[in-house]
Amino acid sequence: MATDLQGKTVAFLCAPEGVEQVELTEPWKAVEQAGGQPRLVSTQSGRIQAFDHLDKADTFQVDTTVDVSPPQEFDALVLPGGVANPDFLRTQENAVAFAKAFFDAGKPVAAICHAPWTLIEADVVRGRTMTSWPSLQTDLRNAGATWVDEEVKICEGGPNVLVTSRKPDDLKAFCQAAVEVFKR
Questions:
Q1: 175 to each of 15, 17, 93, 137, how far by Cα in Å?
Q2: Distances 22 to 58, 83, 95, 143 between C-alpha atoms, Å
């Protein structure tokens, strides 16, 4: 697995504040361990503030911003959760457009927990089968998705492959599925 993602660059789109730290760091490590290059993308340069649920955790250096680096520079996209993270991103037109561009280009996307809120705003979940934090199921159904309560769901019924998971407890399966899909 050490070279499965060799030569692939994976964008991790996060708000300046509110990302669930473990949902950023565990997939990041999985991409690195598979030989890929993760890059932290945000709406602002500088550092982002991660959280452990509602408590401040570590900060992370932003590699680039959505207005500087186009999605074409990346092979795949990871959308970590946290309640505040995708709630902020879905209000930022350039962040929503960044995420949508991966679907338009047929590139794989992996989203965990509350992250599908950004995808709902991008209008890319219609006709997809996916999972999320349970409180998003009505939002996803209202946006045209089929919601399932599964540890990880890989949906190939659209322009790209979409990997989704429910919560931090699902991270092992989420990371394995994301790496598998990203190496295709």
A1: 21, 23, 28, 22
A2: 10, 13, 21, 27
Question: Is 53 annotated in the active site?
Answer: no
Stated as kind and residue range, the H or E segment containing 11 is: strand 9-13
Give pLDDT tens digits for 107-158.
Answer: 999 999 999 999 999 999 999 999 999 999 999 999 999 999 999 999 999 9
pTM over 0.85? The answer is yes
Secondary structure of the chain: what % helix, strand, coil (to 5)?
35, 25, 40
DSSP 125-170: -TT-EE---GGGHHHHHHTTPEE---SEEEE-SSSS-EEEE-SGGG
How far apart CA 157 and CA 162 sit, in angstroms, is: 9
Q: Annotated catalytic residue: which of 14, 114, 155, 175?
A: 114
Contacts of 123 (CB under 8 A, 6+ apart): 100, 143
DSSP string, 91-110: T-HHHHHHHHHHHHTT--EE
Q: Given its phi and psi angles, is residue 127 left (phi above 0), alpha (psi -120 to 50 degrees) or beta? A: left
pLDDT for 47-62, tens place per residue? Answer: 999 999 999 999 999 9
